[in-house]
Amino acid sequence: MSDSAASKTIMLLRHAKSAWGLDVDDHERPLSGRGRRDSLAVGAFLADHDIRPDLVVCSTATRAQQTWRRAVKGGAPTCEVSYDDSIYEAWVPELMAVLRGLSEQVSTVLLVGHAPGIPDLVDKIGNRDGRPDLWRALDDKFPTSGLATLRYDGSWAGLSAGSATLVGFDVPRGAAKKRAKK
């Protein structure tokens, strides 16, 4: 259990690569082959680094849900998952409201969402102190399967602009299966 002054970890994951050209509503677009591989790699990354969120808050979009479910298949620890429709097509104010509404018992949250909301949220809550290498990478591109990790000291309700420190930015990628030559 964490109190309001305890250090918190905020992990912001952009869903894995989705499929295009399908006759489905945007909300229902599934992962592409690369997205399925990359989401497994996200799970392996979390497991390899012993990252155990207390809570995963995931967009209700098919591609976001599939990203998290396949991450679990890839080794991510199972934990409480909340599917939140407000994350789909969310901008920074809506995403901030999700984080500010978290229970103080949550010390590590992983939010699975979309661009531009997720990259913009990192830019909003992250201060630019330290780790210029991470900020350069983020400023260059926040690709699908991108995972930003920030540390924050304070209550969830007090989360504000520039109040968190960027401590990691990773883009787990899965290897494509090679076809056997005939």
UniProtKB/TrEMBL annotation:
CDD domains: HP_PGM_like. It is an enzyme of class 3 (hydrolase). Its EC number is 3.1.3.-. The keyword Hydrolase applies. GO terms for molecular function: hydrolase activity. Keywords: Hydrolase. Pfam families: His_Phos_1 (PF00300). SMART domains: PGAM. This is Phosphohistidine phosphatase. It comes from Microlunatus panaciterrae.
